[in-house]
Amino acid sequence: MLIANAIVTRDLTLALRRRSRVLQPLIFTLICVSLFPLALGAEVNLMKRIAPGVFWVIALLSTQLTLENLFQSDYEDGSLEQWLLAPYSLPLLIATKVLAHWLISALPLILMAPLIGVLLGMSAPIIYALMLTLLLGTPVLSLVGAIGAALTVTQRRGGVLLSLLVLPLYIPVLIFATTALEQAAAGLSYAPHLYLLGALATLALTLAPFAAAAALRIALE
Amino acid sequence: MFNLLHRLSSPPSFFAFAGRALPWLLGGALLLIAAGCYQGLVVAPADYQQGDSYRIMFVHVPSAWMSLFIYMVMAAAGAIALVWRIKLAEVIASASAPIGASFTFLTLVTGALWGKPMWGAWWVWDARLTSELILLFLYLGYMGLESAIPDKRSAARATAILALVGSVNIPIIHFSVEWWNTLHQGATVTKLGAPSIHPSMLLPLLLMAVGFKLFYFANLLVRARCQMLEREQRSHWVSTLIKEAA
């Protein structure tokens, strides 16, 4: 537990010292969101219909942008190799690292969701549903992304390859989240979709750290 | 049995065995595919609803089966390569990827050609079409990762993990896409003919399916032999082989 605490504290401190790295994905999200009304016309009904999908697609892309940094700096300064030697279980270390990544990159996005929701003309209950889906869905994105990040950690410019590997695996999250929001917009219960997202999150939490650990071991062999 | 497998998995004996098996597999594949084409294109009657255009099914359906089958082969070979570090398994997984991607592509193209006269559109966001497209993305990601890692052996192990992650994900993706489809547009276009298939159409379908499978194995052996030679080019058995051939 102590080591987990240390990793999270360290990563949060690092993130606070380099605030632009945290802010840039958020700005990216904001810019992308504002591109859609410009491209499609800001008709209110159209916005209402496409807003949840637009927001979720952009959330996937911005998460994917931050993934490259997940292990990269630790790989470059050699601390990743120390992880392999450390007397702690590697999957646990990775899970903590992913938690830190989620706190730095996904949590701000969730907190920013109301602002973007208002920009896209969502009503309060929809924004609430949006935040719930983000809360359950973004951990899956970070966890599955960690596998891709571990596989491509030794690549110099692995960003595009990473998106090629990871984005197809994100499709179930996208589908369940946007369907939940569609149900919410229609005034129906969206609890089943949230349960499914929760199931995905549980599955990812139990399996992804082990896969990422195996991938890291191979990459650093 | 295990002993035999173990001996077979050593590169030189695999190379020799594959060389002997190749003509039989290729011959069988050609024979079955020719018979299947004859049965399917000439003997089988026209469909009472779809006319003659349903006949593309005899290519479409077997290649769709193959696209999934080959991914499973890749995942299984990848698991074997990860656990026992058997070179042959690595080679089989890596040699399967382009074949699988080609079958997936073939499925999509024949599906589009079939969809145009039947549904009036080249592409429909139907559950099965969408899953097949995502499967193609998974294949492309696999090949992309493989080509990005210069060392063959660590590339094989990294892609093995990717294939295993993909094989856990494929059912989830398929289920979610199917569900998305029924929620969005309802299963109006998915009904492809009656569920029961007439024996005169089933026979060519099965012939083609087995023929495609043999063709895959033959193609796999050609690629695997070639890769084996490349990977083992510094070993003794390859140099004696070359000397004997010269």
Describe this structure in words.
The complex is a heterodimer of chains A (221) and B (246). Chain A has one domain. Chain A contains 10 helices and no strands. The two termini of chain A are 27 Å apart. Chain B is globular and about 60 Å long. At the A-B interface, α7, α8, α9 and α10 of A face α5 and α6 of B.
In short:
The complex is a heterodimer of chains A (221) and B (246). Chain A has 221 residues and is mostly helical.
In terms of topology, how is this protein built?
The complex is a heterodimer of chains A (221) and B (246).
Chain A: H1 2-17, H2 19-40, H3 44-67, H4 69-76, H5 79-85, H6 90-119, H7 124-151, H8 159-166, H9 171-185, H10 191-219
Helix pairs in contact in A: 1-6, 2-3, 2-6, 3-6, 3-7, 3-8, 3-9, 6-7, 6-10, 7-8, 7-9, 7-10, 9-10
Chain B: H1 2-8, H2 11-43, H3 57-84, H4 87-119, H5 127-148, H6 152-184, H7 199-231, H8 236-245
Helix pairs in contact in B: 2-7, 3-4, 3-6, 3-7, 4-5, 4-6, 4-7, 5-6
- Radius of gyration of chain B (Å): 20 Å
- Mean pLDDT over the full residue set of chain A: 89
Query: Terminal Cα separation of chain B, in Å?
Result: 35 Å
| Portion in helices of chain A | over 70%
Radius of gyration of chain A, in Å, reads 18 Å
CATH class of chain B: Mainly Alpha
How many angstroms separate the termini of chain A?
Answer: 27 Å
Largest interface: A-B, 27 and 28 residues
Return the string of H and E elements of chain B. Answer: HHHHHHHH
Q: What order do the SSEs of chain A take from the amino end to the carboxyl end, as H and E?
A: HHHHHHHHHH
Strand content of chain B: under 5%
The structural domain count of chain A equals: 1
Choose one word for the global shape of chain A.
globular
Task: Please report which band the strand proportion of chain A falls in: under 5%, 5-15%, 15-25%, 25-35%, 35-45% or over 45%.
Answer: under 5%
How many strand units of chain A? 0
Task: Characterize the biggest β-sheet of chain B.
Answer: none
Number of helices of chain A: 10
CATH architecture of chain B: Up-down Bundle
Q: How does the helix and strand content of chain A classify structurally?
A: mainly alpha
* Low-confidence runs of at least 5 consecutive residues of chain A: none
Number of DSSP helical runs of chain B: 8
